[in-house]
Every structure is written in structure tokens, then in C-alpha cells.
Amino acid sequence: MSVNNLFEPLMxxxxxxxxxxxxxxxxxxQQSEHDGTASEFDHLWIEQLxxxxxxxxxxxxATVEAGGIAFERQMGIHSDDHLPGLTRMAxxxxxxxxxxxxxxxxxxxxxxxxxxxxPAPASGNTVPGIKxxxxxxxxxxxxxFIAAAKRAQRAGFDGVSVHGAFGWxxxxxMSPHLNDRKDKYGGSLENRARFTVEVIEGIRRVCGPDxxxxxxxxxxxxxxxxxEMRDITADFFDRELIDYLDLALWDxxxxxxxxxxQGKTLLSIFTGLPRKGVRLGAAxxxxxxxxxxxxxxxxxxxxxxxxxxxxxRDFPLQVKANPLFDSAQLPxxxxxxxxxxxxERFINTMRGWQxxxxxxxx
Length: 362
Known about the structure:
Elements: E1 22-24, H1 40-50, E2 56-63, H2 83-95, E3 99-105, H3 135-155, E4 159-164, H4 169-174, H5 189-207, E5 212-217, H6 226-239, E6 244-248, H7 266-271, E7 279-283, H8 289-297, E8 302-305, H9 307-311, H10 315-321, H11 334-339, H12 344-351
Parallel strand pairs: 1-2, 1-8, 2-3, 3-4, 4-5, 5-6, 6-7, 7-8
Pfam family, one: Oxidored_FMN
InterPro entries: Aldolase_TIM, NADH_flavin_oxidoreductase, OxRdtase_FMN_N
Protein name: 2,4-dienoyl-CoA reductase
């Protein structure tokens, strides 16, 4: 096993190639302003990442509609008012030779009313007292994703990543547990996937052949069926609908405990699919140079760095300098993160992860 393969370039179906195999995962840091505009803390974070050797940097989840908000201080891309900050972020990444994407997000039924969110459930049984959104409302939100992608392109980003994970709206519509609709967006797997397909096809139509489109997929919880997620991914690969799949796993080594694929790793179910020109990467406890290199051997084209990148902003440069590099052991103190350059807003977000920041550390 060698880490050298991590520093080989990677061609994508559309747009420029990745200069190496490191992608910064989309991390929701909750450090934007309350209206979704990028704060100085956002810019500092992006500038740090841009100088850290990543081939590709995704922003955290950005709202495609004001009513789709899930977190306090969530980044927005639903208004032209967000363009100046987004443009500055894209330029910072490009100056250092990296590729960039905005992650497009809508919280669906999990939108937070206390933050101005408007829950938009696929089913009338998901949120007490709230009806399922109509077909016309689905189409409006679809068009908001597409408009947000065009806004990202105007800001200078190389592409967007469509958030289809963790039970947010596109994932919600995929789930037979959360989607009991009778219209064209419910019922069969093809119908439940229609929302996502229309978003991706619409982005390609309005943003053109050089714009890069990623898709973040999770396959755990929220009523998703592993076999169905494999089938729809196989279709996306075969049709080359996307440039890359961002497979969001809590642990990239996780083994399936029951069902058709019992005993196999979740990752292998997807790396084993013919993918034509689509690239596949995974996130999930990639904390060392060794683990990153192993994932390429296991069939990934690139790796997504999340927790390790928060702990050590220049993770790719550390790996290049030391093939035995390993991250600090979690949990760490708030002061450790502060000295590394994390803002107080970001640190407070990480306090919400029980195993990340030592309880009581100031």
C-alpha cells in the first residue's frame, strides 16, 4: 500500500480534472450570517482549505430556498444577495488551484420553523398537522435547486453537489417510509427518484457541458432500502447523470448486518458497480494516510475528508509529507481547535458532536 496514488490526477466527465484524490467533504459549520450570507469566518475557513492541498472543496449545505433551512447560521444560495460572498469563496479556491462546488440543500420535512423554515414533507403522515407538499410545490423546489446551481455558476464555482443524503428532501422522497405519494413523485422507485433526476437533469440543461455535478448519497436510516439505493446508483452511473458520487458513510469500513448483502461492506456494494466515466468517493472515519490509501485499493476514485480536516486543516499536505500521518485522537479540547484556526462558531457546532470536543473544555 502506497499513499502515492492519492496524489495522482483524476479526470472527471465534465470540466477540469482533480489534481489529486482529496476532496473536502461538505461540512455544515453554522458560521454564516443569519440571512445566509457568507461571514468572515466562512471566508477564513475556505481560505485555509484552499491553501491545504485539496483537489476539490465543497462548501457546507447551502439553502436553495429560505424556507428549506435546517440549521442556525446555515449558508444560503437562494438569493442573489448571497452572490458577493459566494464569489469571493470560489475565487479563493481557484487562486490556489483547487476545484469548487456548492452543496445544494433543502431540509424538506425537517425544515426548522423557529428559523423561518417551512416544513415540506413528501407525506402527510410525517409531520403532525402538516400536509404533504403538492406536485406543484415539488416542481417549485426542483426549480429552486436548478436556479441555485445557476447562481453557483455565476459566482465562479466549478460545479455543485446535490444533497441527497440523511433524510433531507431528496433522500426523503427516495424513502418508501417517508414517501407515500400517489402522484408522479411517489410509488415505484423510478417515481421516488424522479425528483432527484429532474434536479440533476435540469442543472445540466441550464449550466451546460463544462459544469460539474456531484450527488451526495447516504444509504443508512430514514427508511432507505439498500437494494434500491444500489439500483438507482447503478442507473445514474449507466446514464452518466453525474460527475461523481459522494457516498456519505458514518464509517467507510461498515459491514452490512442483514439482508441480501449481509457480510459485505457497504462500500463494496457501490464500488462493485460499473460506473463508466462517473467517479466514486467515500467519507467515513478517514483519519489517517493509511486509511485514505486503503480506500483507493478498495475501489474508490477519491476520498472525502471530514473530521480529519477539521482537526488538521492541511490534511493532504500532512499525508504528502508523512505517509504514516494519523489524526489526533478524539475528543480534543476546544483550545486545540482554536489554535488550529477554527472559529468560535465552528467550535460551538462541533460541541454538538458528543465525541469531538472534550466536555467542559473552554
